Q: What sequence folds into this?
């Protein structure tokens, strides 16, 4: 794979360097903070070779898979992020979506540290269990303390991620939360202390996340207030001094106990449901996890898992459900890979199966199981059965890391040897069950359809969707269109604002601003019709759509009415571009530059 080219293509399609305010990556995804999401061409980005999917409901995420680090490394070479402070364009966002984005931004960066410490601890449990390492040896104690330290100082890591999210001073946030972990503070609370006539609750704040979050939220408010009222000459010390002086007492008296009780309540509620539903809870969570992961909703379980693990030293719901799901994804992919005759799908499924076996499920989800219902049935059914077994056997996980074949030692329990055995049985149920269901039910309908179309030399007509002067795409005053980055096509300088359908097909995408839409013709050709250059900035002014996404349309059926005068008044180019966005699969023939009336022949397409 040409990572340099893929990085350049991604940067163009997310709106260019000036539209990117922040960029980071996780195990499979590039995570962008964009100044204006409407400038990103999400549909075309999804079709870019090397991109598995795009998720744009909260943070703008481009799913790459196992090569995400290589693509990220190339992106940061060409994407200048230094000193960017551009304001993000406000979008209509529900409170629930905003809260979810806030939660993800806090907990997502914690995963590598937690996962690393978790895997290390699981390996130590294995080495101790088989007698290779003595748990009382100095080396074992030192290595085990790495994992213990990660969770002990978890509040300070939360302080950093929360401060990053809220744009608060990170070092001041660390100082505020660090106070709660001081041995002197712990001793003072244990001995009992009264502040302002109120007895401060005796709470051990190590491994606690909610007190740290509330502390930093309040600190941010104080910091912003004192930045406004403080004279600039003394701001450097006055703002942090006053912010800390107010935040720490408030945290000790109110926010700390409140956060502790929130975490305890969250854990008790889920454990209560788990106790009432038992193995059914694990089975249900295992079955719905693929859809939660696809939507990013599984991150909502992280606060519960981290809090529960910090309090009990183990977790029995999310980790078991993740084991059942991850391994079921792997089995289903291996079943498809072994059964399909489609060489490209075989390679994708085999690679995704290996990734899922190692705990990384996005390649399997976006590359195989979400696309093919037979594979997804295998994942959900086998995942539910495996989850039910794990729940029935009350299996517990002792390390917060994505379950995989490499991290199965996370289920080692020195006090209960059967815990690991039951986890291994659940592993076998998941991989064998999903493999058999996917293998036995799989039919290469897609491959057969593709083969039939390949043998079909029929040319399909595309008519002129708007009256005007037809010009080569290379003459369009926009580099992305003119260079053919989005695909081959043709352009029209319109005489009027009446746009009709150039083919029989289905509307697969309509921009909220009505300036562009996508049509999938009945023969499989995918057309992108873009009215004007940079007309997205008009935010729909002067555009009226007569169709919506999902509508069936006939050739010459009215699609959009647009006001040429409004576009010209905005000092924008009115050129209409007609692009075959799947040009890798369909070739354009017989381009007609002589036509001028809508409905006349524009070109024909044929499957390559």
A:
């Amino acid at each position: 794979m040409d990572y340099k080219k893929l990085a350049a293509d991604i940067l163009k399609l997310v709106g260019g360097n000036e539209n990117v305010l922040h960029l980071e990556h996780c195990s499979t995804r590039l995570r962008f903070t964009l100044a204006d999401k409407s400038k990103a061409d999400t549909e075309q980005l999804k079709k870019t070779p090397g991109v598995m999917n795009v998720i744009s409901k909260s943070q703008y995420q481009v799913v790459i898979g196992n090569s995400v680090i290589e693509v990220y490394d190339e992106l940061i070479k060409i994407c200048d992020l230094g000193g960017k402070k551009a304001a993000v364009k406000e979008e209509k966002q529900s409170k629930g979506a905003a809260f979810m984005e806030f939660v993800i931004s806090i907990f997502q960066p914690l995963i590598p540290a937690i996962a690393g410490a978790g895997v290390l601890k699981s390996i130590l449990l294995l080495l101790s269990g088989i007698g290779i390492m003595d748990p009382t040896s100095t080396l074992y104690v030192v290595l085990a303390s790495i994992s213990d330290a990660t969770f002990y100082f978890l509040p300070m890591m939360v302080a950093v991620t929360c401060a990053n999210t809220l744009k608060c001073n990170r070092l001041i946030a660390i100082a505020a939360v660090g106070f709660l972990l001081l041995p002197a503070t712990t001793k003072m609370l244990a001995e009992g202390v009264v502040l302002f006539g109120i007895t401060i609750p005796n709470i051990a704040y190590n491994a606690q996340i909610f007190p740290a979050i509330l502390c930093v939220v309040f600190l941010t408010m104080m910091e912003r207030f004192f930045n406004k009222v403080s004279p600039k000459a003394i701001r450097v010390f006055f703002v942090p001094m006053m912010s800390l002086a107010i935040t720490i007492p408030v945290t000790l008296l109110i926010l700390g106990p409140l956060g502790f009780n929130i975490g305890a309540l969250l854990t008790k509620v889920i454990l209560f449901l788990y106790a009432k539903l038992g193995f059914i809870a694990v089975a249900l969570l295992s079955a719905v996890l693929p859809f939660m992961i696809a939507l990013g909703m599984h991150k909502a379980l992280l606060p519960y898992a981290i809090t529960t693990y910090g309090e009990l030293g183990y977790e029995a719901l999310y980790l078991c459900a993740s084991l059942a799901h991850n391994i079921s994804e792997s089995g289903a992919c291996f079943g498809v890979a072994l059964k399909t005759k489609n060489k490209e799908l075989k390679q994708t499924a085999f690679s995704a199966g290996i990734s899922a076996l190692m705990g990384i499920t996005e390649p399997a989800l976006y590359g195989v199981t979400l696309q093919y219902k037979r594979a997804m049935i295998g994942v959900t059914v086998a995942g539910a059965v495996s989850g039910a077994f794990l729940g029935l056997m009350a299996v517990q996980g002792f390390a917060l890391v994505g379950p995989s074949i490499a991290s199965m030692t996370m289920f080692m329990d020195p006090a209960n040897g059967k815990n690991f055995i039951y986890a291994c049985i659940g592993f076998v149920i998941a991989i064998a069950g999903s493999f058999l269901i996917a293998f036995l039910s799989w039919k290469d309908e897609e491959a057969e359809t593709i083969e039939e179309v390949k043998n079909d030399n029929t040319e399909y007509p595309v008519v002129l969707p708007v009256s005007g002067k037809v010009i080569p795409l290379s003459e369009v005053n926009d580099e992305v269109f003119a260079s053919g980055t989005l695909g081959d096509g043709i352009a029209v300088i319109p005489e009027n604002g009446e746009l009709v359908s150039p083919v029989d097909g289905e509307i697969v995408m309509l921009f909220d601003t009505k300036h562009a839409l996508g049509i999938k013709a009945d023969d499989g050709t995918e057309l992108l019709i873009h009215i004007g250059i940079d007309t997205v900035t008009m935010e729909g002014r002067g555009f009226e759509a007569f169709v919506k996404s999902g509508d069936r349309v006939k050739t010459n059926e009215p699609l959009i009415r647009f006001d040429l005068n409004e576009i010209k008044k905005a000092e924008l180019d009115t050129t209409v571009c007609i692009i075959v966005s799947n040009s890798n699969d369909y070739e354009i023939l017989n381009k007609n530059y002589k036509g001028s009336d809508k409905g006349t022949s524009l070109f024909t397409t044929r499957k390559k």
Residues 83-91, 446-455 have pLDDT under 50 and may be disordered. The chain is about 50% helix and 15% strand. The first strand starts at residue 20 and ends at 25.
